[in-house]
Amino acid sequence: MEPQIPTRPLSPTATESRLQALFDEEVVKQNDRLDDLARQLITLELAIPGVYAAALKLVAGRAASIGAPWPVIAAFTLWFIALGGTLAALFPLRRRVDPNLIRRRDSVWEEEPLAIEEFYQRSASRKRGWLLFSTLSFMLGVLAAGFAVLA
Hints:
The protein is an all-alpha fold. It has helices at residues 14-60, 69-90, 116-150. The chain contains three helices and no strands. Helix 1 packs antiparallel against helix 2.
């Protein structure tokens, strides 16, 4: 007697279908969450330099001067760069998408239309990159501002 080979039905189970649906929703939702993060970063990137400038004015007064102005200049420059990076993450790129193609196994060249899933993944990857750059620039600006206070 031959041993039985375990088989699996071709159609997915209810659990597999639900998991696939949740995965598909998450692929789409991650762009919305990154946009929400970018909006929060814009709020911080506009508020912190304003508060810092007001604090410098209050502490320094009219007659006082800052000992080494380069950390303050560096801080505001880095904050401006961070704001630019966050805005770059919010503005979408125009991409060609094939509406009939949901998913593709291999990555494609840029001149070919993207699959729908690929579009969402590339958009999220681009936003993550810009937001990471923006966050690092902002934190370096905070460090430069702190150094300006200590110098």
